[in-house]
Write a structure and sequence with these properties.
Elements lengths: L8 H11 L21 H9 L13 H14 L3 E5 L2 H10 L7 E5 L4 H13 L3 E5 L4 H7 L4 E7 L11 H10 L3 E5 L17 E5 L13 E5 L1 H14 L5 H11 L2 H20 L4 E5 L9 H7 L7 E6 L2 H9 L6 E2 L9 E3 L1 H4 L6 H7 L5 E5 L5 H13 L2
Parallel strand pairs: 2-3, 2-4, 4-5, 5-6, 10-11
Antiparallel strand pairs: 1-7, 6-7, 8-9, 9-12, 11-12
Bound molecules: pyridoxal-5'-phosphate.
The site of pyridoxal-5'-phosphate has 13 residues, from helix 4.
């Protein structure tokens, strides 16, 4: 008998949603409860000893979080997933559950700003040393490895500069040093890039962004092996970084349209990037899908699904020009965050990276005129016209 074709990503995610739905409802109920009735003391004792029970106490998990965990595990080709209260909770738990005092972590000069705070301040407070390297060359990671390196942490493309890390090469370097490879896949999205298949051990997402997709929740997800997810869960219940039932339900709803949304984000961003590249007021566009991106070949190799909806560009005229433009857009909404259906425009130097020093910003590649766009799902001509008007001062 012919071997059946593997199911596609959209089918796996949509059907994965019902794997953990014990009810017959097509859209499952919201289990708005803090606790679950136990039928006997024996059942209570058994559940208390279990890892991540679905119906025991809602800090441990709920049927709603189980549903999104099943979907996200399908999406990343992972054995298991853990849904948590924010992207930062996912990042903190993924790293902290794998290090202890005296250990060492290798990460990048540039990361999402709160991740940099975790790496530069929080981990050292707990006696964990961190070395940050230029992500563009995998040899920099190799040179930074020490006998006590336990985690290599990456983000590609990185927020906000769109610089890439060679994920396959870095996973090999981490493993050669007996360290775990963990990456933030928020900017790229699982639709476009599959780090576990490239050798990574854990993937973290801010599910606030593309996974949720509608700018209406704060959520995070970790995916990977059952062993590492159980380790993260053990710390998760201590930190109490809960994803509440309604947020989990909204995340499930967002995930159902993930594939079609991502394909449209990719297409709109490519069109906007091409428009900006030709614009006389634009100095430079940073988008991995453009041939002008210095790592375009790597992007094609490790982002087979597309290049995502995120792009940055630098305006001629420095800080002033970027700042002025921010106040003029009408279709592009001035707001932090990303990955929603609406186009969001941000000025990293003044709005995101204010917790970094001038020197740190410089090292991260955040120039004064850098503008970040999360390209949404509006009609793309309207996004382009809006940007054109705002840059021309009309
Ligand atoms: C790349 C990246 N990772 C992580 C986070 C943190 O996610 P959250 O705000 O859900 O905690 C963000 C937030 O903007 C982000 O852009």
């Amino acid at each position: 008998m012919a071997k059946s074709k593997p199911l596609g990503m959209n089918t796996r995610v949509i059907h994965g949603a019902n794997k953990a739905n014990a009810t017959s409802a097509a859209a499952p109920p919201i289990f708005q409860t803090s606790t679950f009735r136990l039928d006997s003391p024996e059942e209570g004792a058994a559940l208390a000893a279990e890892s991540a029970p679905a119906e025991f106490y809602s800090r441990y998990g709920t049927p709603n979080t189980k549903q999104v965990e099943a979907m996200c595990a399908e999406l990343d080709g992972a054995e298991a997933a853990l849904a948590v209260g924010s992207g930062m909770a996912a990042i903190t738990l993924a790293i902290m559950s794998n290090v202890q005092k005296g250990d060492h972590v290798v990460a990048q000069h540039t990361h999402y700003t709160s991740s940099l705070t975790l790496l530069n301040h929080t981990l050292p407070q707990f006696g964990v040393e961190v070395t940050l390297v230029d992500q563009r060359d995998p040899r920099n990671f190799a040179r930074a490895m020490r006998p006590n390196t336990r985690v290599v942490y990456t983000e590609s493309p990185v927020n906000p500069t769109q610089v890439l890390t060679d994920l396959e090469a870095v996973a090999d370097i981490a493993h050669a040093g007996k360290a775990l490879a963990i990456t933030d896949n928020t900017f790229a999205s699982s639709f476009n890039q599959q780090p576990l298949a490239l050798g990574y051990d854990l993937v973290v997402h801010s599910a606030t962004k593309y996974l949720g997709g509608h700018s209406d929740i704060i959520a995070g997800v970790i995916t990977g092996s059952q062993k590492l997810i159980t380790r993260a869960w053990d710390m998760f219940i201590v930190y109490g970084a809960v994803l509440h039932p309604f947020e989990a339900w909204l995340l499930r709803r967002g995930l159902l349209t993930y594939g079609v949304r991502m394909a449209a984000h990719n297409a709109n961003a490519m069109a906007v990037a091409k428009f900006l590249e030709k614009h006389p007021r634009v100095e430079r566009v940073h988008y991995p899908g453009l041939r002008s991106h210095p790592q375009h070949d790597l992007a094609k190799r490790q982002m087979p699904g597309g290049f995502s909806g995120m792009l940055t560009f630098e305006l001629k005229g420095g800080y002033e020009a970027a700042y002025r433009m921010m106040g003029r857009t009408k279709v592009c909404t001035l707001a932090v965050s990303l990955g929603g259906v609406e186009t969001l425009i941000t000025h990293p130097a003044s709005m995101i990276s204010v917790h970094q020093t001038e020197e740190e910003r410089k090292k991260s590649g955040i120039t004064p005129s850098l503008v970040r766009l999360s390209v949404g799902l509006e009609d793309v001509e309207d996004i382009v016209d809006d940007l054109d008007r705002a840059m021309s001062g009309k």
